[in-house]
Specification:
The complex is a heterodimer of chains A (561) and B (180). Chain A has nine helices and 28 strands. Chain A has 561 residues and is α+β, with helices and mostly antiparallel strands. Chain A has a four-stranded antiparallel beta sheet with strand order 8-7-10-13. A four-stranded antiparallel beta sheet of chain A has the order 9-14-11-12. In chain A, strands 25-26-16-28 form a four-stranded antiparallel beta sheet. Chain A is globular, with a radius of gyration of 28 Å. In chain B, 48% of the residues are buried. By secondary structure, chain B is an all-alpha fold. Classes of the chains: A alpha+beta (561), B mainly alpha (180).
């Protein structure tokens, strides 16, 4: 039975028994909640909804609603109790406030439960005379990112002294960096926090201001990783789809300017293999990747890395390591190496492990961005002695854009098509009719299939041979719409069927055209005993990989002496 | 649906309707992934609390967008759950009820045993395929909606679905054989 028949069988099983025991069990044996639980939760939710509405109506300066967009991990599963407690506090607070039962409150610390951070923080003892201050609820070490579980709101009677400038709102302190050690109970003052830190990562700790790149690989089962950017830091983020998907949508919406909100939703709705997002941060934000599925997950935040596009950065050009790709892992246990590639195309690289003297028998784990590019591959986080990392299916037409910068044909506008499929029907539509030529990269010859305007053309892409579309009369940056019908390569050859959602692709391409600035793709072509060869198939600016070893690593061009 | 969801943001009765519409599916999906009834209830409660809290920010983007949104929340909460809780097999008594359990007790017991075996087989799949299977069969999502939830191409979902069923068939046959 091929896949199409199987899918049809599944569809039918939902309407009538299929006779297939497994399928019928899957369809019919649906877990079911107890009515008691369903009704109890329903009542609880309705009460919550009513409370929210009421809280919004009665909100004033003394009752600030603080909403967290990045909830921390839940450590206690009994959310119901937390909810009940919060509701009790809210109603109790309102009651006390309205009845004025406690005109002379003593200082009370209201912990900010990270788990209930989206809830209203009740300030039950606040009166017009009392002051609210933010205090450390526990010792906060220098350099720590101040999250809500580290601080609390304290209400202080008017007659008590509070240091000048002490913060009164959590939102002023939240996600700033502790400039020095802060003791539990200490008032949070402006001089104790610092938001002038370029990048923060829970994994890599503080990064130095001016550092131009950070690479965070999220491997399966790694804990959550936050990337913190200071205000007004221009940056580029390369976000493969799993990570992008897992980045909380609200984070994008919050951090992007209004005119880029569409882009944010695009990232949420149409994540492709790897995506590029450029934005200038108007306020501090946190990219909070909460999970990475096997094979997926890389958040790469690059500042000023791309030399060919106006990134708005003025910290200088990155070093491109032309012809000299030797590098060493920067830390014995940090395991991340960022290696920009030379501009040349189809460059083969090898990770030469000969430098790992004495390393025989030491397991080396390798995760490349390749894995993130193909997050469906479930072998990415396996050790490199896994013989085959090649994906068994390729599902997405990589996006394309016109550029005139370095590449196979410098100075000529071109679009690179991935060589990951054997056959592709391309329908392109420029803003105006222009002649285009399709040719293999290697030939660099203006020969092959050509078309004008919206004329569809079917070409057959030879295996392992990237193709480009040349549009000699189109200026770089021209908006391009391409729809494609793709015959995919599937390992068992049972699933070759056209992708029909051409409109979606066109939308993606058009959208990307406005925002993207880099196309990166790398493909493992062989894994030998002592080397992994990478072939760059597009105008890659960088291949990034993680070697989970502290041993020195030599990365060299295959042809290098 | 759009109107209902918009009203549900502030109108408890509209929210109740939305809840009743989605609760069984979300519960089914979570139960398919998590297993133990107490854990399932915690996660499901967490999901709907998150829905209440963030419903204001939801933007309707056409048919299926709300389902995708709510299941995305569920998907994330399940992942959180597994980060905090090591995987553990559930005893038969700890499993959620199964649809049709109001049949005679002996039949109900048999059904639960079969569900336990089914659940164990699903747990053997890769996480991605577990997701696809449970979203499709227990969550009742279509492939396109699953694709949105998981950030995948629809074709990839279809492919995972087929491969997962193949794997499941093998596992299921072995499980069944060992119990006969």
């Amino acid at each position: 039975m091929n896949d199409r028949q199987r899918l049809e069988k599944i569809e039918r099983a939902f309407s009538e028994p299929s006779g297939d025991r497994l399928l019928d069990d899957l369809v019919q044996m649906t877990p079911q909640a107890s009515r008691h639980f369903q009704h109890q939760l329903e009542d609880q939710l309705i009460a919550r909804l009513k409370t929210q509405s009421m809280t919004h109506q009665t909100e004033d300066e003394n009752m600030t609603t603080i909403t967290r967009n990045f909830p921390a991990e839940r450590t206690q599963p009994t959310r119901g109790w937390a909810t009940a407690a919060a509701l009790l506090l809210i109603f109790g607070g309102l009651f006390a406030l309205f009845m004025n039962l406690n005109p002379e409150p003593s200082a009370v610390i209201v912990p900010i439960d990270a788990d209930s951070a989206t809830e209203t923080i009740p300030v039950v003892t606040a009166t017009p005379e009392a002051r609210r201050v933010v205090v450390a609820s526990q010792d906060i070490p220098r350099g720590a990112l101040i999250s809500t579980d580290l601080i609390a709101i304290q209400t202080v009677p008017a007659h008590e002294q509070v240091p000048e400038g002490a913060f009164s709102r959590v939102v002023d302190v939240y996600y700033q960096i502790a400039a020095r050690d802060i003791a539990a109970g200490e008032y949070i003052l402006p001089e104790l926090v610092d938001n002038n830190v370029v990048i923060w990562s829970s994994r890599a700790n503080l990064f130095l201001p001016g550092q131009i790149s950070e690479l965070i690989h999220l491997i399966h089962n790694t804990p959550e990783i936050d990337t913190f950017m200071g205000s007004n830091q221009p940056l580029l983020a390369l976000i493969p789809r799993n990570s992008a998907y897992n980045i909380l949508p609200e984070a994008f919406r919050e951090m992007l300017d209004n005119n880029e909100s569409l882009r944010a939703s695009f990232l949420r709705e149409h994540i492709m293999e790897m995506d590029v997002l450029r934005f200038s941060v108007s306020t501090s934000f946190t990219v909070h990747s909460i999970h990475s599925l096997p094979g997926g997950g890389l958040v790469q935040v690059i500042d000023c890395v791309l030399p060919f596009y106006d990134t708005g950065c003025d910290t200088g050009q990155p070093i491109l390591n032309r012809g000299d790709l030797q590098t060493r892992l920067p830390w014995t246990d940090a395991s991340t190496a960022f290696v920009p590639l030379p501009e040349s195309y189809n460059d083969e690289l090898a990770l030469d492990f000969s430098a790992l003297s004495g390393s025989e028998g030491i397991p080396v784990r390798l995760v490349m961005s390749y894995c993130a590019l193909h997050p469906d591959s479930e072998t990415c986080d396996e050790s490199i002695d896994q013989s085959d990392n090649a994906p068994d299916e390729l599902v997405v037409l990589s996006y394309a854009m016109i550029t005139t910068t370095a590449g196979p044909l410098p100075g000529r506008p071109y679009i690179v098509l991935p060589d990951l499929m054997t056959m592709i029907t391309v329908l392109w539509a420029f803003d105006e009719d222009v002649p285009v030529v399709i040719e293999p990269v290697e030939d660099h010859a203006e020969a092959g299939t050509s078309s004008t305007g919206s004329t569809p053309v079917t070409i057959t892409l030879p295996a392992d041979d990237p193709m480009i579309i040349i549009a000699p009369d189109v200026e770089a940056g021209t908006r391009v719409n391409i729809t494609a019908t793709i015959l995919f390569v599937d390992s068992d050859e049972e699933f070759q069927q056209p992708l029909t959602d051409g409109d979606q692709i066109a939308e993606m391409l058009a959208d990307l055209q406005l925002n993207s600035g880099i196309i990166t793709d790398a493909r493992v072509i062989s894994i030998a005993d002592d080397a992994i060869r990478l072939e760059v198939t597009e105008n890659a600016a960088a291949i990034d990989w993680v070697i989970e070893t502290g041993l020195p690593l030599h990365i060299a061009s295959v042809d290098a002496p | 649906m759009q109107d209902l969801i918009n009203r549900a943001k502030h109108d408890p009765e509209a929210f109740r309707e939305v809840y009743r519409q989605f609760f069984p599916r979300v519960y089914g999906y979570v139960a398919g992934r998590v297993g133990q009834r107490a854990d399932v209830e915690d996660v499901v409660a967490d999901v709907f609390l998150a829905v209440v809290e963030s419903l204001d920010r939801f933007e309707y983007r056409g048919t299926g967008s709300f389902a995708a949104w709510i299941f995305r929340i569920a998907h994330n909460r399940i992942n959180q759950f597994y980060r905090n809780t090591p995987g553990d097999s559930a005893a038969l008594d700890d499993l959620p009820d199964i649809a049709g359990d109001d049949s005679p007790p002996e039949n109900a017991l048999l059904r639960r045993e079969r569900f336990a075996r089914l659940h164990a087989c699903i747990a053997q799949l890769s996480p991605r395929r577990q997701e696809v299977i449970t979203l499709r069969f227990f969550g009742g999502l279509r492939n396109q909606e699953i694709a949105t939830v998981l950030g995948l191409d629809e074709r990839t979902v279809a492919s995972h679905l087929c491969r997962a069923l193949e794997d499941l068939e093998r596992e299921y046959q072995q499980e069944e054989a060992s119990h006969e």
